[in-house]
Amino acid sequence: MPLFPGRSTATKERIRSTNSRLVVSEGTICSEVMQVDPNLPKAFDDFLGPEFLLPNKGEVKIGKGRIVAPMAPGMIAGKQTPPRLTLCNNGTANGAYTPQPANFPCGIAPYHYYRDVADKFGGGAVGFLTRALIEVPCVVNEAAAANIGTGVAYGSLVEGDFVRSDTRGRFVVASPSDIAEGRRVVGRVIAMITSVPPLGWLEWVMLGRDILKEEGVRDINFPTLRESTYSPQMQGKPFPYDPTYAWPIHRDARGIEFLTDGSVFGDIAYTNEIVLNVDGSVYANPNPVPAVGTRVRLYVRNAPISTVDRTGAARSPIIRIEIGAGVVWTDITPDCSVDYLTGEIIWTVAAARRGAVADAIRATYFRGPGIPGIPRNWNEDRALGAVRIWMLI
Fold first, then answer.
1. Does the pLDDT at position 56 exceed 80?
2. Are residues 192 and 214 in the same domain?
3. Which residues contact 130 (CB under 8 A, 6 or more apart)?
4. Which of 246, 260, 288, 344 is the most exposed place for a label (fewest CB within 10 A)?
């Protein structure tokens, strides 16, 4: 309950209040009883949700990880409802549905908000996170994000970017004016992970020999493969100490089908992307210019490089590499080789091309079809990877 001062207006002495401590809500559940905005359209059905077989019990109004905002109580049958939480629309009226007043963020949903389950006993009490490090998937654009009912970021994000909500509670880059205003900013990007499975997920990668062992096949010689272990439960050195499970992943590696095989992760076009040095810095305006005959190792940002499209037809070209405005290489030539799995480019500097390297080297290619060991919650069509955000609300 609220603590009014209980002071004498004449003497300024506290004469009635017996509690000197502020009322503070702990964790994600507010001391205020709140409701999910009933006017929100259904985000999706959660088939693993509470009492899903009962009418409307599995209907999710706001998915976990979405940015939320407070709204005024409503009236039902002449009685005032509790305060409500709705999707944040970043000050744009009618962002998630019509009508919806303009609002600004107060936090993020730590779990699904269901239509009819909103009590502490059922684990669905409405609350929100403010200061926390969270991880959400990141996809190419808003159209791809529209297919994801939970928290998601979209667009080009890099470490250090401030983020805000779009009109439907999803993360996007904050503009300088958003940052200056302050109330629109919800967090800051701590890490953007795009090209390799995160630490620990390589345990779920199998090599060809492991797959045959699982299927009971014996005594088949694969001279190009090394003995390995699939999981710590199998004999031999367990993951991650077995050197077989290391980056770059063996070309014969597979994940668990449709779960950690990266089957729909990627197949995204990258155009005129500046390539990277081994240390991760961009390869632009190198000084001094490499000498003729020097072998330079470069990398594209988003491996692996796709050699076929989704129909299985070969891409042409697979990769196009430019220096400045001039086309230098298409696919593989004697003085440039590309490892499509790791995205490594080995360039032997030739005299005819040495004079142009003061400009950035750019690559045009497709990424895909996927990387074994990608977690299932990253394995989305048009996915860029995962973004870790420190909430600043």
1. no
2. no
3. 106, 107, 391, 393
4. 288
